[in-house]
Amino acid sequence: MVCIPCIVIPILLWIYKKFLEPYIYPLISPFVSRMWPKKALRESHDKNKGKVDCKGADINGLPTKGPAEISDKKKD
């Protein structure tokens, strides 16, 4: 058995998207564009943005226990 909100909310969202949004969106779009300027929507073109350093991770990408780097320095 499915709860009432699980049925009603998707149906109301579908009705809004299908029938009401074409009429309401042109009215609210000027206010939305003032609140969220286009500068905030642009993506940065930084080449290093998605890269992750995998030192200290096992084959699955999970961090390993113990020190991540092995030091070659001599201890006195």
Automatic annotation (TrEMBL):
Q: Name one GO cellular component term.
A: lipid droplet
- Region of interest called Disordered, as start-end residue ranges on this chain: 42-76
One Pfam family per UniProt: DUF4512
Family matches, as InterPro entries? UPF0729_C18orf32-like
Q: Output compositional bias ranges, type Basic and acidic residues.
A: 42-56
State the family named in the UniProt similarity comment for this chain. Belongs to the UPF0729 family.
Subunit details = Interacts with DERL1 and AMFR.
What does the UniProt record say this protein does? May activate the NF-kappa-B signaling pathway.
This protein is called what? Chromosome 18 open reading frame 32
